[in-house]
Specification:
The complex is a heterodimer of chains A (147) and B (155). Chain A has strands spanning 9-21, 25-29, 49-63, 68-74, 82-88, 94-95, 99-100, 106-110, 115-128, 140-146. Chain A starts with 8 loop residues before the first strand and ends with a strand. Chain A has 147 residues and is mainly beta. Chain A has a domain at 47-146. Chain B is built from two helices and ten strands; from the N terminus they run αβββββββββαβ. Classes of the chains: A mainly beta (147), B alpha+beta (155). Chains A and B meet through strand 1, strand 2, strand 3 and strand 9 of A and helix 1, strand 1, strand 2, strand 3 and helix 2 of B.
């Protein structure tokens, strides 16, 4: 005889619940604009090239699609100076080599598929003494795309 | 003659069985149909935003003993997370929120349902659907379809 007692069942009922998860992609930059100011403090005697860096902002993303990357581009078609960008310490995926920003999308991060993560944005502004003075205003766009 | 008696007996047995089955089903039922829950948004650096559905309810008959309701699900190939909680319960005690997973044992959902009137008692079924970015999406992996069963048993 089986010693396990079964409770009296009075009835059963049920239904079907369907759960659907859309393709979700979200990307944003932490608050604030970046100002890279090259001044006399950045001048090295005897050298034409001056540079300054900023890593005060971060990129955050979330994507539930497989095989995804982050690319970056700028709105400024003909910059006077050079602006470069590198993804530092990504929590997921691999940083691409430092890119010189242009209007063409370039890889910033690879292999971020199905993840939520962040990285620090390391900007480097470069000017030559011979280029004189001026301002470049970039509107930078980050895009999660198929890899 | 004996054939006629046997046939009548067989029909009687079938009718009794059908009656018992109908009675079993009538003791507890889900009202409001079969919900579709869609997770559609997410936050960069965080996770997709969970969604809640409270459009369906559970209705059951009083019994002569104290009873409880258990819940279980069948969802082969389940990818995402679905929980259920009994709310708007006026008779009995809601168990903590239950996480539904394929092949789970029957798990307490409502406890200590008293024997007294009213004849029919109800609660709202509050489902919460959630997913992480790492769990992917339905376009690549398909939907989760849960066949959820509620059972009214003696406690």
């Amino acid at each position: 005889m089986n010693g396990t007692a079964r409770a009296q069942v009075y009835g059963t009922g049920g239904h079907t619940v369907t759960m659907q998860v859309s393709v979700i992609t979200s990307v944003r930059v932490t608050v604030g604009s970046v100002n890279l100011n090259i001044s006399s403090a950045n001048v090295v005697a005897g050298q034409n090239q001056m540079s300054v860096t900023d890593q005060s902002t971060s990129l955050l993303w979330g994507t539930n699609s497989s095989l995804r990357k982050v690319s970056v581009s700028t709105s400024l078609a003909a910059p006077k100076f050079t602006l470069k960008l590198l993804a530092l310490n990504p929590t997921v995926g691999n940083a691409a080599p430092q890119v010189t920003l242009s209007t063409s999308a370039q890889d910033l991060l690879l292999n971020i598929g199905r993840s939520s993560g962040s990285c620090t944005l390391l900007y480097t502004g470069i000017a030559l003494v011979s280029q004189g003075t001026g301002n470049d205003v970039h509107v930078i766009t980050f895009t999660v795309a198929a890899q | 003659m004996s054939h006629t008696i046997m046939r009548s007996f067989a029909i009687f047995v079938i009718l009794c069985s059908a009656g018992s089955l109908t009675q079993l089903r009538a003791q507890i039922s889900v009202q409001g149909g079969n919900p579709l829950m869609s997770v559609t948004t997410g936050t960069a650096g965080a996770q997709p935003v969970s969604v809640t559905n409270a459009a369906t309810s559970l209705r059951w008959r009083k019994q002569n003993v104290i009873t409880k309701i258990t819940v279980s699900t069948s969802c082969p190939g389940q990818r995402f997370t679905l929980t259920v909680l009994a709310t708007n319960l006026t008779y009995g005690v809601a168990a903590p929120q239950v996480t539904l997973f394929n092949g789970m044992p029957a798990t307490n959902f409502v406890l200590n349902i008293p024997t007294g009137n009213p004849v029919h008692k109800t609660c709202t079924l509050q489902y919460t659907a959630s997913a992480t970015f790492a769990q992917g999406n339905s376009a690549e992996l398909g939907n989760d379809v849960h066949a959820i069963t509620y059972t009214l048993v003696a406690q």
